[in-house]
């Protein structure tokens, strides 16, 4: 058990089932899988596996982890595949532990330890940590508001390793944006604006960052710049429920009711 507690994965990240509507999170994750780049889909399967564990369905958890493994195999370059497998192997170890299949659990724990040993020295260690912090951060963002500060801290750790990493910049911007919606986080007010600008600059294809930045432009009454970003996002991902939700919010707040209804 002590060996498993040392593994960085969903089972050791203090994700409490009572904090979320599990069915709702599963639905959102399945929507994301449709629109995410293939290289990131394994993360959704990892989290879905943990949610199945919370429901006590460990057979289904294993199926989700197998999907994660297949996705990594299909979409990853050989040199970064093991990096992406680290969290997944940890989840496998924990699921088999809960099934009382201790030999299999030990085998997967050893797989994690082998990767950690291979990546124990810089710069390879930084590559591994960057991926783990990223997966942990996005996992926290998939839960509720009480996890958003933890998400921001994960992305900040990742950016210490690579300040130019597009994904970590997007993650931090989104975490801070979401915290601004909570009264207990008033000290973060408007901090997301420059973070979102930077995220869009580093990753021009990040449509969610674009629509969030558009909403920030709306706050400062820069309607033209906000509208341009909205149109770009609609052209790039016209069917994404996340993009459409924020687009509808933009038009509603901009008193364009017809367009808001069309995009809801």
Automatic annotation (TrEMBL):
It holds the Pfam family TPR_8. InterPro entries: TPR-like_helical_dom_sf, TPR_rpt. Residues 51-78 form a coiled coil. Keywords: Coiled coil, Repeat, TPR repeat. Belongs to the IFIT family. This is Uncharacterized protein. It comes from Staurois parvus. The lineage of its organism: Eukaryota, Metazoa, Chordata, Craniata, Vertebrata.
């Amino acid at each position: 058990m002590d060996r498993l507690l040392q593994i960085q994965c969903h089972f050791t990240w203090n994700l409490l089932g009572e904090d979320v509507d599990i069915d709702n999170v599963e639905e959102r994750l399945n929507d994301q899988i449709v629109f995410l780049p293939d290289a990131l889909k394994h993360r959704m399967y990892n989290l879905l596996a943990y949610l199945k564990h919370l429901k006590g369905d460990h057979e289904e958890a294993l199926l989700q982890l197998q999907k994660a493994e297949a996705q990594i195999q299909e979409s990853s370059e050989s040199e970064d595949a093991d990096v992406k497998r680290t969290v997944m192997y940890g989840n496998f170890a924990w699921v088999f532990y809960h099934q009382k299949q201790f030999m299999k659990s030990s085998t997967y724990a050893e797989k994690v330890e082998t990767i950690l040993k291979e990546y124990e020295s810089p710069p390879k260690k930084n590559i591994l940590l960057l991926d783990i912090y990223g997966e942990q951060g996005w996992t926290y963002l998939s839960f509720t508001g009480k996890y958003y500060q933890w998400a921001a801290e994960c992305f900040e750790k990742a950016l210490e390793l690579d300040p130019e990493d597009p994904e970590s910049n997007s993650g931090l911007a989104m975490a801070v944006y979401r915290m601004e919606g909570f009264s207990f986080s008033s000290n973060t007010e408007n901090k997301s604006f420059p973070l979102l600008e930077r995220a869009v600059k580093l990753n021009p294809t990040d449509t969610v960052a674009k629509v969030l930045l558009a909403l920030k432009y709306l706050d400062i009454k820069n309607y033209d710049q906000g509208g341009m970003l909205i149109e770009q996002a609609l052209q790039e991902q016209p069917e994404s429920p996340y993009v459409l939700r924020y687009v509808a919010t933009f038009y509603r707040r901009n008193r364009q009711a017809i367009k808001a209804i069309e995009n809801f």
